UniProtKB/TrEMBL annotation, chain A:
PANTHER family (alphabetical): QUEUINE TRNA-RIBOSYLTRANSFERASE CATALYTIC SUBUNIT 1
Region RNA binding, annotated ranges: 253-259, 277-281
Subunit comment: Heterodimer of a catalytic subunit and an accessory subunit.
Keyword check for Cytoplasm: yes
Stored Pfam families: TGT
Keyword Transferase belongs to the record: yes
Molecular function GO labels: metal ion binding; tRNA-guanosine(34) queuine transglycosylase activity
Listed name of the protein: Queuine tRNA-ribosyltransferase catalytic subunit 1
InterPro entries: TGT, TGT-like_sf, tRNA_ribo_trans-like
Automatic annotation (TrEMBL), chain B:
Family: Belongs to the queuine tRNA-ribosyltransferase family. QTRT2 subfamily.
Binding positions for Zn(2+) per the UniProt entry: 336, 338, 341, 367
Cofactor binding, note field: Binds 1 zinc ion per subunit.
GO biological process, alphabetically ordered: tRNA modification
Subunit structure: Heterodimer of a catalytic subunit and an accessory subunit.
Organism: Ridgeia piscesae
Entry-linked Gene3D superfamilies: Queuine tRNA-ribosyltransferase-like
Cross-referenced Pfam families: TGT (PF01702)
Lineage summary: Eukaryota, Metazoa, Spiralia, Lophotrochozoa, Annelida
Compartment(s) of residence: Cytoplasm
Record's protein name: Queuine tRNA-ribosyltransferase accessory subunit 2
Keywords: Cytoplasm, Metal-binding, tRNA processing, Zinc
Primary localization: cytoplasm
């Protein structure tokens, strides 16, 4: 196969000498992104209550937009007319859009997978519509994100049997259709998505087929639907073993702190999750030891900031007591807690990167887990996953 | 304690200076006429403080109505500087008051010993003791005495007289407690003038209040606040105000909450009012509107802007919910130098509104504050340059042609 034109270059800066973790510089049209990276989700062309400039100040390098939502409102034509989503929302750094398929299957009750595409009844005017791989790429070309995703045949991660086999093969076929339909490979990077449910053989086969297609990067999909973590890490690690080293690996829909640390160790570079911003709306603030429910009466006179070490606007100015007095009452509290939660994710990733660069990532992992689980009741899946890459949480003698 | 220096009077309009604002750096003074930054629970609505700080002509006074603070003042009490420490408002002076001009106050609920306010948990009745305890916790730079402002155009004479009497009694009780309070030593106490639309009561209230050792005056009790205040026309009462300010010493500031549109602000300035609130830009923001009236004496509005104001159901603003803005790539207001207009299009704000995204309110609040603060700066400059009449003419020319188009429209959601 001839190499496709690409608008992405990945330079591996450092590799962990123990785990599969690595630090890279991923150069995209709008910004050079340091990986491993967390990407906040700005579904409708905005991140909940935060301005793009504030996001830049938090050192956010790349964020997500949802094709399903943006394709409906304001619509691809309008976004294209104003010069892309970057221009529309005034975000200068990188963007990634999903294919719209996952959202469609999870949000639209009446949807059906056919070989041609996802057939669905529009929730807006009840007409029968079809999202084909070609259509998804066309919309994503109009939106103009640095990274775009193939349309894949989504099945719930708990589905088993022939449906999973069919979905895996179809996803490979759809990747070919997406590559063919992609009109701006010099400006946007199309990623393939490794599917295959929780079946190791299917995953392996899918990953191998995907790798034959010379796309700029790969995602590991279908693992954010509440499956057992026992399966998740096995599927992730077998995928990263097959995926080429010189291309980025994006683990879709995963973003809890523990999952991030483990999956970086398993060799993933990119992550996204709505959780940090969604949970902010309910007054939940993320900290290394878990999270604070700021609504809770225990914070009524708590004069400490959310996190004394955090440098975000919220922690520099406000006490837990003050935030307690406004959360869920004043909408500005949503912005304040979101700002902190994004800062938390960014700091976690930057600490991870630094420890990889200094080749002390295994120690970082042990410290991180001890802070999160002071009683050392570590989740079994995490212990197993980390064991598999040479980091032994329960071994007292290894420092 | 805060002092007021009157620098210039033109007709009834006053140019003044608030000085000796202890909490700000010693050199900081605040020019009047001015408007305060509305806050809820001790924080500006929608806009985080980094963005707020970027707004040009930002007034350094935070307006803190009691209702959104209920109960949390107890925590504020633990701080040396009260609410200022608690809510991280060190770069502001704090004005604390009874009723919230953006919300209709409870009607027919006040009595001799308690005043009703809408708190988060519903209606609350506040006694003088409780009120002063709250103020001690908040420790404002300046606050108003407890008052019975439940009055409007239709209030009976009897009701109005009662309001005046009660408010004077509350003032005396507040003054007594104020003078004994260690924590409120540096706070300025304003008396509140009541009397509805009754000239006699108004003059009596002014005369009596002026006899007390108050630092300034609040003129309230023309309407019950909230959205209906948008229909309140200062022109209906400007003679009343002129009469009552005759009774007030010139060297003390006068504030009037709930004055909304720019034409009304100018009427009130002309009648001798110095301090206003920002309920108007907050209302506009809450319903997805942008203030677009032209107050620049140098620049004419574009024809397009004139047209869109004319067609707007609300005076002086445009409704960005309107589908006509779906594909409008022009800034919210052509020529506006605010953070929002330098970056975003009407189409984007419209998109944020139809998708009910939080950023819509943030961007609109920034533009609307910027616009309103800029308008007050123009009032001050016009007063200095003796051209307030030109500003008045310019603003009045932008009023909707028929008053009925304003008053008919009651859906203020
Ligand atoms: Zn923080
Ligand atoms: Zn503007």
């Amino acid at each position: 196969m001839t190499a496709a034109r690409s608008a992405l270059s990945l330079k591996i800066v450092s590799e962990c000498s123990v785990t599969k973790a690595r630090c890279c510089k991923m150069t995209l049209p709008h910004h050079t992104v340091d990986t491993p990276v967390f990407m906040p989700v700005g579904t409708q062309g905005t991140l909940k209550g935060i301005t793009p400039e504030q996001l830049e100040e938090l050192d956010c390098q790349i964020m997500l937009g949802n094709t399903y939502h943006l394709g409906h409102r304001p619509g691809p034509k309008l976004i294209n007319e104003i010069g892309g989503l970057h221009n529309f929302m005034q975000w200068k750094r990188c963007l990634l859009t999903d294919s719209g398929g996952f959202q469609m299957v999870s949000l639209v009750k009446l949807s059906e997978m056919t070989e041609e595409g996802v057939k669905f009844v529009s929730p807006h005017d009840n007409s029968v519509m079809m999202l084909t791989p070609e259509k998804s790429i066309e919309i994503q070309n109009d939106i103009g994100a640095d990274i775009i995703m193939q349309l894949d045949d989504v099945v719930s991660s708990t589905t088993t049997g022939s449906r999973v086999v069919e979905a895996m093969h179809r996803s490979v076929r759809w990747l070919d259709r997406c590559i063919k339909a992609h009109k701006r490979p010099d400006k946007q990077n199309l990623f393939g998505i490794v599917q295959g449910g929780l079946d190791a053989e299917l995953r392996t086969e899918c990953a191998k087929e995907m790798v034959k297609r010379d796309v700029p990067g790969f995602a590991i999909g279908g693992l954010s639907g509440g499956e057992e973590k026992y399966h998740l890490w096995r599927m992730v690690t077998l995928s990263t073993d097959i995926l080429p080293k010189h291309k980025p690996r994006y683990l879709m829909g995963v973003g809890f702190a523990v999952d991030l640390v483990v999956c970086v160790a398993l060799g993933c570079d990119m992550f996204d999750c709505v959780y940090p911003t969604r949970t902010a709306r309910f007054g939940r603030a993320l900290v290394r030891s878990g999270q604070l429910q700021l609504k809770n009466q225990r914070y009524v006179a708590d004069m400490r900031p959310i996190d004394a070490d955090c440098k975000c606007l919220t922690c520099r100015n406000y006490t837990r007591a003050f935030l307690h007095s406004i959360v869920t009452h004043e909408s500005v509290s949503c912005s304040l807690v979101s700002l902190h939660n994004i800062a938390f994710q960014m700091k976690l990733m930057s600490d991870i990167r630094q420890s990889i660069r200094e080749d002390r990532f295994p120690q970082f992992i042990r410290d991180f887990f001890l802070e999160m689980y002071p009683t050392k009741k570590y989740p079994e899946w995490a212990v197993d996953a980390l064991d598999s890459v040479g980091v032994h949480l329960n071994d007292e003698f290894i420092q | 304690m805060m002092r007021f220096i009157l620098s210039k009077v033109t007709g009834g309009a006053r140019l003044g200076l608030l000085t000796e604002l202890q909490s700000l750096s010693s050199s900081t003074t605040i020019e009047t006429p001015m408007c305060m930054v509305y806050t809820r629970g001790g924080i500006a609505p929608f806009v985080t403080k980094d963005l707020l700080a970027k707004i040009a002509n930002l007034p350094k006074v935070a307006h803190v109505p009691l209702n959104t603070l209920t109960r949390h003042h107890e925590t504020a009490a633990k701080f040396e500087n009260g609410l200022k420490d608690f809510a991280a408002m060190h770069d502001f002076i704090v004005y604390s008051c009874v009723q919230d001009s953006t919300e209709q106050m409870p009607v027919f609920q006040n009595d001799k010993t308690t005043i009703a306010v809408w708190g988060r948990a519903g209606k609350q009745k506040v006694t003088v003791d409780e009120y002063m305890r709250i103020q001690e916790s908040v420790k404002p730079d300046w606050y108003q005495a407890l008052c019975d402002s439940d009055a409007n155009k239709d209030s009976s004479k009897k009701r109005l007289r009662k309001g005046v009497e009660r408010t004077l009694n509350y003032l005396d009780e507040c003054l007594e407690k104020h003078n004994k309070s260690e924590r409120l030593k540096a706070s300025a106490l304003f008396g509140v003038l009541e009397g509805g639309f009754q000239r006699q009561d108004r003059v009596f209230s002014a005369k009596e209040t002026a006899k007390r050792p108050v630092a300034g005056f609040c003129i309230e009790g023309f309407d019950n606040f909230g959205p209906s205040a948008e229909h309140f026309q200062v022109s209906d009462i400007k003679h009343l105000i002129k009469d009552l300010v005759m009774e007030l010493p010139a060297d003390k500031p006068r504030m009037m909450p709930g004055v909304m549109t720019p034409d009304n602000v100018l009427e009130a300035v002309n009648a001798g009012i110095d301090i206003f609130d920002t309920a108007y830009p907050y209302f506009a923001t809450s319903r997805g509107c942008a203030l677009v009236f032209n107050y620049s004496l140098e620049n004419e509005s574009s024809e397009e802007n004139k047209m869109s104001i004319k067609e707007s159901p609300k005076p002086f603003q445009i409704d960005l919910n309107d589908d006509r803005y779906t594909g409008d790539f022009s800034p919210v207001l052509e020529g506006c130098t605010c953070y929002v207009c330098q970056r975003y299009t009407k189409a984007y704000v419209h998109h944020l509104l139809v998708t009910t995204e939080l950023l819509a309110s943030i961007l609109l609040m920034i533009h609307n504050f910027h616009h309103y603060f800029g308008f007050f700066e123009e009032i001050r400059q016009s007063l200095k340059a003796e051209r307030l009449d030109r500003l008045y003419t310019k603003i009045h020319a932008q009023r909707p042609k028929t008053e009925s188009s304003v008053t008919k429209d009651n859906d203020l959601g």
